[in-house]
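Blackboard transcription, Thursday session:
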Amino acid sequence: MSLKQVEHVKLLDRFSTSNKSLTGTLYLTATHLLFIDANQRETWILHHHIAAVEKLPLTTSGCPLVIQCKNFRVVHFVVPRERDCHDIYNSLLQLSRTAKYEELYAFSYNPKQNESEQAKGWQLIDLAEEYKRMGVPNDYWQLSDANRDYKICETYPRELYVPRTASKPIIVGSSKFRSKGRFPVLSYYHKDKKAAICRCSQPLSGFSARCLEDEHMLQAISKANPSNRYMYVMDTRPKLNAMANRAAGKGYENEDNYSNIRFQFVGIENIHVMRSSLQKLLEVSGTKGLSVNDFLSGLENSGWLRHIKAVLDAAVFLVKAIAVESASVLVHCSDGWDRTSQVCSLGALLLDSYYRTIKGFMVLIEKDWISFGHKFSDRCCQLDGDPKEISPVFTQFLESVWNLTEQFPQAFEYNEAFLLQIHEHVHSCQFGNFLGNCQKEREELKLKEKTYSLWPFLLDEQKKYQNPLYNPSFSPNLTLLEPNTVSFNFKFWRNMYHQFDRSMHPRQSVYDLIMDMSEQNKQLEEDIKQLEAKIKRKSGQSDVVLLKEHQQSAHPAPVMLKTPPCFKKDQPLIPLNDAVRTIEGSNTADNRYSEFMEELSKAEPAIVSLEYGVARMTC
Amino acid sequence: MEFAELIKTPRADNVVLHRPFEPAVEGTLCLTGHHLIFSSRRQDNAEELWLLHSNIDSIEKRFVGSLGTIVIKCKDLRIIQLDIPGMEECLNIASSIEALSTLDSVTLMYPFFYRPMFEIVEDGWSAFLPEKEFEFLNALTDEWRLTYINKDFSICPSYPPVVTVPKSIDDETLQKVAVFRHGGRFPVLSYYHKKNGMVMMRTSQPLTGTNGKRCKDDEKLINSTLGPGRRGYIIDTRSLSAAQQARAKGGGFGVEVYYPQWRRIHKSVERFNILQESLIKLVEACNDQSHNMDRWLSKLEASNWLTHVKEILTAGCLAAQCIDREDASVLVHGTEGTDSTLQITSLAQIILDPDCRTIRGFESLIVREWLQAGHPFQQRCAQSAYSNSKQKWEAPVFLLFLDCVWQMLHQFPCSFEFNEHFLVTLFEHAYASQFGTFLGNNENERSKLKLPQKTMSLWSWVNQPEELKNFKNPLFEANSLVIWPSVAPQSLQLWEGVFLRWNRPSKFLDEAQEEMRKIISDNRVLQEKVNYLRRKVAHMETNDEMQEDL
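(Written on the board underneath:)
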């Protein structure tokens, strides 16, 4: 890397029509791209977050460089000299494409923890504990050691829960009949209904193949549910896709061959459709001077919200089977690591309020996404690999959860910032949790020794992620959420896709304000306790004081004449975060209606070329 | 006429009421001159529904055997269904409702019969007098005066008796200018920007016609409001081509040669039936729960409602920008100056003037810029989204304005003293009300109807302390700044509080709101308590010290 620092670089506002810009210096470090503007404000961009770098044709003011990030930040630099721009471009290309896991940020990131803290961090989420919490093992379900050495399925975790009646030969036989060996295993057990969510991949049924062990496996699952002998098999793919798979010797379950199953397609599209859908969404939302109709038709054409609805509809279907019919459900797609993860985890989230807590959500992600082998590395393009493997499957899961938090503002312990932060780190490669594609790979990388777990860091700053409106009694244990999935409930997630475009956000955030107030209330209650204790102590000391206090209480004013000595000792009230009420970016130049003035300004530059400062205030 | 003549069947038993997201209830239906009253018969939860006939936008009836069903669609967008046994009863009731909900005489409307159950602390009819408003202005500048030239509504039938005009222009000149302006609406002061002394005026189109007629007095009036070296912007709410076409009908726009310090900007805002159709389409889209995502989005798009919101808000921002950022005065007009003009002048004031973001200030704004300025409420709000009358003069101009205000409230949730409920209430009362405030099309009609003497003002009711608290935004902290909303499509949202209000259960959202309010009020109470205890401790310690000193 020859170049480390470039001066006089301009950072353009992505949406400003007046080509408003900040001038500053661009620094290239081993892990980040850093821009410091004239006001010493810093913009940090992690190399791993860079999804694409583009060099636009040279202009009079310099060479434009557009960087698109996986967290949907888009920055537009103008570098004065083309040579420098070219150097940065090449360096970024190199730095953002990592060939080996060991070169990822997580392996060099050092949060100054010692080994035992590091190990403790990794133990924070214990899936064995989680299965215990669900109520397994029990009379019907047991821990199987079949995959202890990853011999049956490389992409599954070592520890799997299966029906007690599923013997090892059944497991082995069934796994041979399923794509990638991903045979049906327990994902979630509903204690009250005694019904289970199980997951697997598609059967290798082709046009007519059968597998007795696989049929036994499904029967074992339905028998493991004493409340309902029928079970649902949900194929989360569109029927057409599933049928096409039959030609390749894969496919779906034939209802005639399996006893007591009800088979259902739910029609979630595949990773390629999702990838191009997001691409279209980003193209629309990134358009300058967008009209309402172009936005809405772009939103429609992208299909993005349709896909989110499909995912949530599938979860609602699953939940109904369990909650209403007490029936177990087996979920699969093709390989059983994308759509299956979405539907199983959302289903569990709707069924079990534990997953609506901060810790519970971490557990859910560890269980249904990380341990069951959602291919984070491929889907998030952690290493330079096949671009066709990239897909926003996990982003869709987070967005579905966000939609639920909008419908049930009191049901979740965590807030939007929590979801955004997780999204940030899925792509940042700063922590070990999401590296690699499956548990086996993670063990081989020795992530638990060489990297840190994200979760303890999020727990440490959990105040930032707490929903001030959360009401644990809103949904006591195992309370079902029944979301309304009528289309108008699904909205464009502005805070995700325009997280870094401040001018589009509400200028004052109710949420942050309430969060601070709620935090302050706790402190105030604490203060009251202390003050009351103090008063009690003092009034115990002498009755004279009490007496005098009574006399004076009618005229409290004289007390204030003297500076109260206790004020010095007491903790000051926590100041409300000023930033909350700061009207940031409230500036005509940030908005679109200034266009008219610009047109006029061509004739008479004297009027308009004013550059307004950002109106800031604390109200 | 007696209402009794219209009521063929005053009462029906065993009627079943269906409402969205609530279980059906059986009960008795009664018709009175102004209300449809339904009371459930059940002991456990006797509930009553009172519906103003004037709130009914349309009714449909159908029969299955002898069981009749009436579907009532209200102007506040609610839809209810009544199952009435007996074909004759049902037909009678349907025709009575139809007749009672479409009375053509204003004096038969409920406000003339309504007797308030509350004590009037302050009469809303006299709460916002132009003279009082002028006092504030006069303290700031002496360049303006009140004119009573229109006291008998002869110069301009849609203006109030008193308006504010430049001091240097006498009544004689005004009279000549009025002849040159559509409907006699000569330019008047709408807003004075304290910060830089710039003003916003409004008027109607000049009657230049095809041969480009001019009026020296008009030029004198408009030019007189700008000092030497100053500049102003004329914001025409029509597109250039629409303004040009208007010349053929005798209207037109001012030619810049004659108004040398003014620049004209065409900022097109839709009007009349285009808006009405937009509302009808939007409500249709919102009421259909079966739409898949693509269909919903394309229906939302096809309604164009949010496009209109963006258009109007943008125009309001532009006017505000000219005044606050360009230090220029502004004159706004379209054709008649009673619709889009008022949307823009009132939105610009909300952006610029923190007073307009208080409850009192917002009421005053509505009185000044809508009621006194002659927005024809009775025509525009005669019917709402379920209307099939397709009258040219029906248009949700005021609702669009309220929607724009809601968008700002949404973007600046701490800067407004009022809450969403206040805006929704104004929407409801503009279409159907027990109060006389929104009756009539202008002050002229209101004075002929003797509304202040014969009906109750909405403001008299709203401004009672016990009602007022329902309209207060607990987050409000006075913000003296200009507020610039974002008009990016990503920032604009469907006003769910109006358009999805009856289409989804709101229990969880309401509870969350309640919790939020609780946190805020707890915060106040706790702060007070801590302060009180600190004082007490301080007091005790002072006493201790005094004792030690002794």
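Lecturer's comment: The first helix of chain B runs from residue 3 to 6.
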